[in-house]
Each structure stands twice: as structure tokens, then as C-alpha cells.
Amino acid sequence: MNIENRLITNEDVKAIKKYRDERGLVEKYVHPNGTWSNDDATVKWAGSAIIFDKISYGKSQDFIKEGVKVVDLGAGDGPVAHMISHRGYDVVGVDVKPWNFGYQSLAVMITKDAIEFVREYEDNSVDIFMDGCAVTHFNDSGGDEQTPNRGWRSIFEALKRVMKPGGYFICFSDIQCGDETVIGEFIRPEDIVRMAEESGLILTSEYNYSRDDRFSHSCNLGVASFVFTKE
Predict the structure, then answer these.
(1) For the chain, how long is the longest CA-to-CA vector?
(2) Domain covering 6-229, topology
(3) Where are the chain's structural domains?
């Protein structure tokens, strides 16, 4: 299933829901608000697991679970940190708000501002960062035509320093799908990619910006996936 570096389509949603149901994720990771029933949550949560699996299994002999450090930014009540920890990885979930989930997890959950948390890490110390639509909410009151959402730039600059060479940033985010530059919380995927590349991160493949058959939800937002790496 190829869902990385693209605007998610309605066909992608069907495939991701099939992955969710075949693995019983709704029952294994019960969400306190029943949010698995929302297609956009399923796309972000199960989609993150799909891409993580592709990256980790694709490395086979080189990607050993022991010693691999994973950080879920803005983890909240979402299941991503817990799904990854149950695969045998060392996972930290960080969020400014306390979390609430009704199942056992091996992930370490920390209540703290995610940008501050990352800035305290040593250089080249984390293998994989995850984001299930939290970073786009990190925006402050500033913004201009060159930097439409400062939260993205802040996190990209921090990740560039902290990620290990060859590490990954796996991200699913709500985005605006118009052609105009949007200033504020939700911006275009083109602007997110531009800020990442200006910060020194690299897409793992060419980005597909096609709006054909795109999935949309509240306020006509789309969902985009991104996989960045560091040389």
C-alpha cells in the first residue's frame, strides 16, 4: 500500500480501514471517545502504523528493534505510540495535555510542550519521529507569507538537529487544498514540504500533490502524509 508523500484519496481510506479491521485495532486500542469511527482519525492512526511497518520491515537486517528510539509528537489520547511500542520499540509519547486510554502500553508518556521536549534532546539521538496531526496545531500567533505556520518551521529545525542520519519523520496532517497560500493553523502541503526542505530535511520520494479523488472531512480539509529523512 503506497500512501506516503501524497494527499490521501478516498481509495486510500478504504485500504487503510481494511488494514485497521483486519488487525482488530479498534478493539485492541479502544479510544475513550470512540474516535476510530471517524475516517480522518483512522487515516492518521492506522496510516502511521502502515508507513512505520514499511520502513522498519523494509530495512530487515539493518533495522533492529533494540536501541531504536521513537518519539510521537503530540501523542494525546491517540494509539500510535502504543501500537509502535507493542511492536517492541522504545517509544516516548509527548503532549502538553494529560492523556487517557484504557489499555496497557509500554510507551513512556510525558506531559510537556513537544517543541520544548525535542529541543532538550541531544544531537543525532532519535531514529523516528511520528506525528498524527499535532504539529499543525503548534502554530503561534505569528506568520507571514514566507512562514505561514511557525509551528512547522520550529519543529523541522529541531528535528533536523535531533534526528539520527538516516532517521525518519512520519507525519499525517490536516491541510488546506486550495491554490492560494494560507496563513494560519492549516496550510497547504506544498508549504509544509518547502519549510521542511529549507530546514534541511528530505522527502523520501517525490511528492504527489494531485487533488483527484482526495479525501476531505470537516471544513473541507484534506489529509496529507509526509515521510522525511535526514542525510
Answers:
(1) 46
(2) Rossmann fold (3.40.50)
(3) 6-229
